[in-house]
Sequence to fold (155 residues):
Amino acid sequence: MQDKQRFSLWVAAVAVGLIAPVVANAHTTIWPRESMAGATEKYTIRVPTEGKIATTSADLVAPEGVVIETVGVPAGWKYDLKRKEGHIVGISWQMTIQPGEFAEFTFVARNPRGRDQLVWGLRQNFADGSSTDFTRTPDGAVRPTAVVKLTPRPD
Fold:
């Protein structure tokens, strides 16, 4: 094997080694990643179980100013709504998502006007009692998987 080919294989192996942990730690995410300020949007929360411990629930906290209007009910799953002054401010879906599986949960919400992004509270809870915050990294930075960019409404 030529030195150039060996080097290329080595670079590829290193790249896989660096990327694999990111893929293995896929996150609970919100979709779409972009919407319009003031628009009514169907949002989807995607909850994968990549590890060896089943997911038992997923929690969503809506950003200030978001109005959650309706909640999709996946067959066989349960949910609880958290309300403040009569408005839905959070949803907790209870389910068992086995390792290697994922579930999606939907809701319809109206975005606030005058904002350029929304940061959603996302938490995944596991059968062993542990949980993972998918809104912020351990050092406090906002994860891009919890952010929806808002574009201005045309006049």
About this structure: The two ends are 63 Å apart (CA to CA).
